[in-house]
Structures are given as C-alpha cells and as structure tokens.
UniProtKB/TrEMBL annotation:
The keyword Membrane applies. It comes from the Bacteria. It comes from Conyzicola nivalis. The keyword Amino-acid biosynthesis does not apply. Keywords: Membrane, Transmembrane, Transmembrane helix. This is MFS transporter.
Length: 413
C-alpha cells in the first residue's frame, strides 16, 4: 500500500480500543455479504423452481436499493451520527438476511435482499470514518485495519457461502444474520456516541447536483458500463460454471483474494507510476479481453475458473482507481461525490445479472460475456474521450485516508 506507516504505528496496530475491533468485525461480515449469495444461486433456482433470470434479481434488488441509498447516506449520517447509522444498517441486515433464510419463494428473497442492500449501504458508508476516529496508533494503523477487514470479507464471503450452501441454500443467510447480530451487540456496548457539535449537515440535494459536474458525470457513465462487465462475471458465471455450491465458492474465493490483493497493494503502485486515466485506459481493455476469453471458454470449467480469477485481479485495480478519480475529480466533499458516483454505477450492476441470463436464453451461453466485454470497451472510450475533462484526477498522489475510502467504496461495486 502507498500509506506510509511509522514504526510506532506498526507496533500499535493490534492494540486498538474495543470499539475499533467491534466495527472491524462487523465490516468483515458486511463485505462478506457481497459474494455470499454467488455459490447458492443455482441451488435457489433448482429448489425454489425459479428461472436463472429470477434468481439473478437477488443481485438486482440489492444493487438498486444500495445505489439509491447512496444518494442519502451522507445526509442521514451527518444528522443522526455515525453510531446510529451503523446500528440501523446492521439491524436492517440482520432482519432481512434472516427473513431471506425463512423465505419460501424467490420473490420474497428478492424483496428481502433489497432491504439487505439498504443496510449494507448505511453501514459501509460510515465504517471507515468510525474506525479512523476511534483507532489508536494514528490514521495509517486505522486504514490498514480497515483494509484488512475489507480483504478478509471479500475473500471469505464466497467461500463461506459455498461451505454453508452445500448444506442448504438457507444457511448462508442465517449465518450472516447471526454474525451481524453479534456485531450489532458489540457496537451497541463498545462504541461511544459521537459529538453532535462536530457534525456538518449535508444537503439532501447535494449528491444530485454533483452529477452536473462534467468530470463526475463522465466517471459515473464509465462506471455504469464497467459494472455491467463486473456483475456479468460475478453473478452470471455460477450458471455456466456447472459446479456445486462448494466449487463455486472456491472459484470466487480465488476471485475475492485477487480483487483484495490488487485493490489494496497493486492499484497504489500503478497510480504512483502512471496517471490514473492511463491506468484505466490500459486495464479496462484487459478486462474486456478477459470477458471475451470467458465467452470463448464458456464450455470449459478450467477456462472459466481462470477467467474469473484473472477478472478479480483486474477488477481490484479498476474499483480503486475509479473511486480515487471520483474523489479528485471535483472540489465537492468526498462523501457527496462518492455517493453520486456510486448511485449511478450500481445501475449498471443492477441491469447486468438478469440481462446476462436473458441473453443466454435467447442466444448462447457465451453471448453475455461478449456483450459485457463490449460494455467495458464503451467505458474505455468514455475515459479516453473525456481525458481533457478528467485532467484534474491525475494531479498528485492520493492521501492514505482517500485511498482507503476508494478501496472501501470500490468493494461495494
């Protein structure tokens, strides 16, 4: 990582207040939720007699609500405080994950996943600031701890989903509800309330007005098309892959490890040596080629596994660099810029899963990957054609806190 850590901070990273560990634990579970559902999609489709397109709506409802919530999270947290925002987010995840586990049809799970998405948006948008504010050993120690929680959650989510899903598709939902309930209790007991005098209220209209800025609008458009590629790889691949829950879980465990490694360590190295727009112009076409390769090797389990893992490596870089660009593109408060951008990009993610299964049903199993690759190339063109408007994003190295915000926001993609 690019964050510089003094010897004092290195020795103190594990000696944190209990409230920091409470938030970090809950952060691991929240990030696990991103890939938890992946291994059980085929099982849900089979046991609940749902079509692949129906089950892909589990991603769509989650992402639509998460995206819309991002318009309002800064408004909410700036008024009720970080602790209440965290607890509301955790409570929503507990309730809706448990409800999903008890559901008897896919339509109910789709609805409850929407509530889960709202909870996740509220929690993750507040977690970093809380850890930084409460941690000992300086900002860098707090950021390392947050990034460790992020990487652990992204990697373990699909693996846990596969392990529990091999027993029953309900188990991953019950597991998430139980772990988040523990996190809720820990934060309730251990985290102190924040000082009202330090809050700076955010306007409700601010995230909407932010999209009038050309640089932010360009980045949001690029991310929308890019996320079609991201979620085609993540949400559609379990169907042509042909593995059981454990095999899918292991495959996307490799995806998660690759994404975590490149987002935390590789992306900062690349942006320290190249302009951010250059990194995007190079890595986006590589992702498009990876998606085309997935289409070519759609009939080979080995080929698809390799495409998924390579895709994770590329996605980690892109998530972090895109969000860093957003934070430097304007002089807007970073929470406002990030929420506006995230809301738009999640629309791409929401469209991709059901679009992929519909295309596969109408044409061939490879078609969704080719369409996704084309969508990523459109994102590349947006970046290339908008370079003049994006000139500001290439100025200077990223501060450690901003880098961590980028990694955290990118993980929600």
């Amino acid at each position: 990582m690019s964050a510089s850590v003094s010897p004092v901070e290195k020795t103190s990273i594990l000696h944190q207040p209990k409230q920091v560990w409470a938030v970090a634990f809950a952060s691991v579970i929240a990030f696990m939720g991103i890939g938890l559902v992946d291994p059980i999609l085929p099982a849900i489709a089979e046991q609940l007699e749902a079509s692949p397109t129906d089950t892909e709506m589990l991603f769509t409802s989650y992402l639509v609500v998460t995206g819309l919530a991002m318009f309002f999270t800064s408004f909410i947290s700036s008024r009720i405080g970080a602790k209440k925002t965290l607890l509301i987010g955790l409570a929503l995840i507990v309730v809706f994950a448990a409800a999903a586990a008890l559901s008897g049809n896919v339509e109910s799970i789709i609805a409850f996943r929407a509530g889960w998405g709202l909870g996740n948006a509220l929690f993750i948008s507040t977690a970093l600031a809380t850890i930084v504010g409460a941690a000992s050993g300086g900002t860098s120690s707090a950021i390392i701890l947050y990034e460790a929680a992020l990487g652990l959650g992204i990697a373990i989510g699909p693996l846990l989903g596969g392990l529990l899903g091999s027993v029953t598709w309900r188990a991953p939902f019950f597991g998430t509800a139980a772990l988040m309930a523990i996190g809720f209790i820990a934060i309730t007991v251990l985290l102190k309330g924040d000082d009202r005098a330090t809050r700076v209220p955010t306007s409700l209209a601010a995230p909407f007005r932010a999209l009038a800025r050309p640089a932010l609008a360009l980045l949001a458009a690029a991310a929308l098309f890019y996320n079609i590629g991201f979620f085609t790889l993540l949400a559609y691949t379990p169907f042509p892959l042909g593995f059981g829950a454990m095999g899918i879980g292991l495959t996307f465990f490799g995806w998660g490890v690759g994404l975590a490694i490149t987002s935390v360590w590789v992306a900062p190295v690349l942006t320290a040596r190249m302009k951010r727009t250059t990194v995007l112009a190079v890595v986006l076409p590589l992702l498009a080629l990876d998606l085309v390769a997935a289409g070519i090797f759609v009939g080979s389990q080995t080929g698809l596994v390799v495409a998924v893992v390579v895709g994770g490596l590329l996605l980690g870089v892109l998530n972090t660099v895109l969000t860093e660009c957003v934070m430097e593109a304007t002089n807007l408060p970073r929470s406002v810029a990030s929420s506006s951008y995230s809301a738009v990009r999640f629309l791409g993610g929401a469209v991709a899963p059901p679009l992929a299964t519909t295309l596969a049903g109408l044409f061939t199993a490879a078609t969704p990957y080719y369409v996704a690759g084309g969508s990523v190339l459109i994102a590349t063109l947006v970046v290339l054609l908008g370079r003049r408007a994006l000139a500001r994003v290439n100025d200077g190295a990223e501060e450690p806190v901003v880098e961590a915000e980028a990694i955290g926001a990118g993980a929600l993609a």
